Amino acid sequence: MEAIIFDLGGVLLNLNYNLAINAFEKLGINNAQNLFSQKSQTKFFDDFETGSITASEFRDEIRKFIPGSVTNQQIDNAWNAMLLGFPENRFSFLQTVSKTHRIFLLSNTNEIHMSWFKNYVNKEFGTDVFFNLFEEAYLSNELGMRKPHKEIFEFVVMENNLPSSQTLFIDDSPQHLIGAKEAGLQTIWLEAGMETVDVLAPFLA
Hints:
Elements: E1 3-6, H1 17-26, H2 43-49, H3 55-63, H4 72-80, H5 88-97, E2 102-107, H6 111-125, H7 129-132, E3 136-139, H8 140-143, H9 150-160, E4 167-171, H10 177-182, E5 186-189, H11 196-204
Parallel strand pairs: 1-2, 1-4, 2-3, 4-5
């Protein structure tokens, strides 16, 4: 493989969707799992991930499902509850892989999550150290596109002149692999319980 495209949440950063679902339910949202999950989500979540709506507009949408009054910070805290740690072994792995392969980041994300994450990794590893490991970092809310659509993969491939058949994409959401395969990429589904470092090792030998 010449290049590897990494998903962020669930592949590099540990995630637990249920923590956010539970946090929203504590704020008063009934059956929050009907609004979003790893496999599907309500349209305004998609809009937030493509930058079609702002953080303020996203919070206003959330408030429609909450009977009482909540602050912006309460909503942000609930939404960020799913974001967990970034293990040191994965950071070290990225440092090693970046010396032998072209590596890229491709994440469905949003303004609130990225504000939290950038602050977190800057504190853990040093300012901009994490993002500088990648040749390019592609964030859905900045691109105006999101996975699983083929177009976002084609954009990354074309912009970087990547050989599709020698480019590997790894993601923990199986539906995101569909567009990657349509764009000609090799793919790995990181299933629950699998470790990114272990799964990728055979491809780097």
